[in-house]
Amino acid sequence: MRYSCELIKDLLPLYYDGACSAPSRAAVEEHLAACPACRQTLAAMGEDPYSGQLQREREQVIAHYGDHLKKKAVLIGGCALLVPLLACLVVNIVTGHALDWFFIVLAAMAVFASLTAVPLLAVRKKGLWTLCGFTCSLLVLLLCCCLYAGGDWFWVAAVPVLFGLAAVFLPMVARQLPLRGAPARHRALLVMAVDTLLLYAVIAVCGAYSGAADYWRPALLITTVCALFAWLLFLAIRYLPASGLTRAGICTAAVAIFGSTIQDVIFWILYGERELTLLRADLWHWHTDALVNANTYLLILLVGGAVGAALIEAGLLRRRTPKKR
Q1: Helices 154-176 and 187-210 sit at what angle, rounded to 10 degrees?
Q2: Could you report the per-residue pLDDT of 69-122, keeping only the tens digit for each?
Q3: Cα(260)–Cα(305) distance, rounded to whole angstroms?
Q4: 3-state class of 13 per DSSP?
Q5: SS3 per residue for 171-205
Q6: Rounded to an integer, what distance in angstroms lies between the CA atom of residue 227 and that of residue 193?
Q7: What is the DSSP string of 92-148?
Q8: List of residues 6+ apart from 129 with CB closer than 8 A
Q9: Max CA pair span of the chain
């Protein structure tokens, strides 16, 4: 051994704390590889109760200091928000002799606080608490604006907002929910079900707000067609017993078919026109809008079908090819 045990034992505390230089660390590791006694001494350092206690105390001090900084930041932020809030309160009372638009300012401040203060104050699941706070405060802001304007549009604004937030953030929220059993294994299915219900809720509040008698039939039919297609894609991606390439190919081909025919389905529902635009396609002529539409749909169908077929074939080939061990 190039180094004596006495020298290495002097370096072991620094090595254990990660405070020695790179050459010293290399020397210690070289010696430890050949010296069982020094390895035992190093292992005893990890079992030292005083060392563990010091480590716990250090972590407690760091955590306490972090909490102190959080409280200080929240206090400073609260004071910064309180000044303009009080100013708006005074101005609203003086000019209007009542409180009306002040509540809009208060709700707007709550939206801002949900994005700044809540992540600092939340101990666990910061994203979940931030999203809940933002959603609730945003709905309160919409309600205050609706009441102040004397309108009746709150639900036609609130439900689409909930649908948009759910479509983007509900998958992340579902992953943090403490579910067990079948619900835990089918979180994606629950997300799709909630999104579908919210989609139909959007259609319902828009229909109630418009008051048009001829709204419901086409709106529900078109929504149902699109929702069924989304569900078919979801079930194929999530539950189809096939390889990823095969599922991707099936979904690509399905999207091509849907994209090239959905306009004809909508026209049939709205106007009773039973005509397939693809039948008018002529790739050698593009001089009218009708031909441009038909040719574009045909290209979508051909390209999407070709890509889908290639992916399905690649998936089937990979499945038939034996894996190398």
Answers
A1: 180
A2: 666 666 666 666 677 777 777 777 777 767 778 888 888 888 988 888 788 777
A3: 11
A4: helix
A5: HHHHHHCCCCCHHHHCHHHHHHHHHHHHHHHHHHH
A6: 11
A7: HHHHHSS-STHHHHHHHHHHHHHHHHHHHH-SS-HHHHHHHHHHHHHHHHHHHHHHH
A8: 118, 119, 122
A9: 95
pLDDT digits (tens, 9 = 90+) for 114-138: 888 788 777 788 888 899 999 999 9
Both tokens of residue 49? 């109760």
Q: How confident is the model at residue 41 (pLDDT cuts 50, 70, 90)?
A: confident
Cα distance between residue 123 and residue 119, in whole Å: 8
Average pLDDT, the chain: 84
Q: Rounded to whole angstroms, how far apart are CA atoms 149 and 120?
A: 34
* Tally of residues, the chain: 325
Quick check: 19 and 49 in contact, CB under 8 A? Answer: no
- Report residue 151: phi and psi, to 5°: -95, 175
Rg (the chain; Cα; Å):
32
* Tokens of residue 280, six digits: 């008018």
Least confident of 28-42, 43-57, 81-95, 203-217: 43-57
d(CA 202, CA 248): 30
Contact 8, 30 (CB under 8 A): no
Distance, first Cα to last Cα, the chain = 43
Structure tokens at 244: 């990823």
Q: How far is CA 181 from CA 125, 193, 237, 276, in A?
A: 22, 18, 22, 47
Q: Is the dihedral of CA 284, 289, 291, 295 positive or negative?
A: positive
What six digits make up the tokens of 40? 């035992």
Q: Is the pLDDT of residue 206 over 80?
A: yes
C-alpha dist (Å) from residue 303 to 91, 110, 155, 264, 320: 63, 50, 42, 20, 26
